[in-house]
Amino acid sequence: MPPSRRRPPRAFAETETGGAAVENALVLSLTAVMIYAFKTTSGVAALLKTFQQAMAAILRALG
Length: 63
Hints:
Protein name: Flp pilus assembly pilin Flp
Distance between the termini: 36 Å
Number of strands: 0
Number of domains: 1
Helix content: 55-70%
Low-confidence stretches: none
């Protein structure tokens, strides 16, 4: 049986529109995380820690 000619699925789109959609999704998810963290914590240190974790997750996803 010959090898399949289908291309493997890509995690991120290579078009300009796809890149913008991924960027918008990441910004919206970060905003949601920050709102949730702000509502559930009263300390600034906890809020900054959550922000740092969210940024690290986004950088891992983009890398």
